[in-house]
Design goal:
alpha/beta; 4-stranded mixed beta sheet; 12 strands; globular
Length: 296
């Protein structure tokens, strides 16, 4: 296992090309058309954005995912290369596969997503043994690949899991508990955890649950207690990927030995940088000042 004073994190999950529409006057309504003054394309998906954040904080991050099919492959490859994320465990989409894309409509300080996923979330690629932690970008990926936990444990890796909103899963909290209970760290947002718990997920299903609460900040629940951290005051440009950037900051601090309150603060700081830019990785260059404090 790699020295945790400098953690190396392998992130797995679906990889999308995000088509982001900004400065909307209102969200589209059936039968009408809305013109968006702002538009950009970025590599997206929780696994990549978390990996890019970890890499920007000075720690090694890798990605295991399937590239979106043409014509979006080049955009995604460009962003992965710019972020410095190790993509040697990624693979091309199968021939004839439709591209994985997310359309993000940004309005004020929130956004709505329309997503198309296709094929397998992950390529069938053997992992090298030099990763210390596995981060699973969304619950759907773990549901599709439940062997991920056993593979990680065979390499002595700790495991974290984001949720991601998925109607087919978040309303099945009791059914999802056997998966969630096997990870070390669960990182949903407030809507996701509320829906999972209302449908049967126990409060202590995971050893540590970190809830991202947007403008309210974040909280962490564990056997050692519950801690909260308020959001940083910042002008919100686009919240796409802010939770995934939070994950990167929290993980680097936690894996480096920081206690939960310090890890929570690091995550909130990274999320605050992310919302000040368009796209989940638009603010990577502003992460150098984020304090990552390890426990003494």
């Amino acid at each position: 296992m790699t020295d945790l004073s400098h953690p190396s994190v392998l992130c797995v999950g679906r990889l999308y090309c995000d088509l982001i529409f900004t400065e909307l006057p209102h969200l589209p309504r059936l039968g009408e058309e809305v013109f968006a003054p702002g538009f950009s394309m970025h590599a997206g998906g929780g696994a990549f954005i978390t990996a890019a954040t970890i890499q920007a904080l000075g720690h090694r991050a890798g990605l295991c995912a399937t590239f979106p099919a043409a014509p979006f492959t080049d955009t995604v490859l460009r962003d992965i290369e710019r972020a410095g994320v190790d993509a040697t465990l990624c693979d091309a989409a199968a021939e004839g596969q439709s591209p994985q894309i997310t359309v993000a409509s940004v309005l004020d300080d929130d956004r709505a997503f329309l997503t198309h996923a296709s094929g397998s979330a992950l390529p069938d690629t053997p992992w090298p043994s030099d990763w210390s932690h596995l981060h699973i970008g969304e619950l759907r990926t773990l549901a599709e690949h439940p062997d991920l936990v056993a593979r990680a444990r065979a390499h002595n890796m700790t495991i974290s899991l984001d949720c991601g909103w998925d109607d087919a899963l978040v309303h099945k909290g009791a059914e999802m508990e056997p998966l969630i209970s096997k990870v070390d760290l669960f990182l949903p947002n407030a809507s996701e955890i509320a829906t999972l718990r209302s449908s049967g997920l126990r409060h202590d299903a995971a050893p540590i649950t970190v809830t991202k609460e947007g403008a309210k900040g974040a909280r962490v629940e564990s056997e050692s207690g519950t801690y909260e951290c308020p959001a940083r005051p910042v002008k919100v440009v686009d919240t796409t990927g802010a939770g995934d950037a939070f994950n990167g900051g929290f993980l680097v601090a936690w894996l480096s030995g920081a206690d939960l309150p310090h890890a929570l603060s690091a995550g909130v700081s990274c999320g605050a940088v992310a919302v000040g830019h368009v796209g989940g990785t638009g603010g990577l260059t502003g992460l150098h000042h984020i304090p990552i404090e390890a426990a003494e």
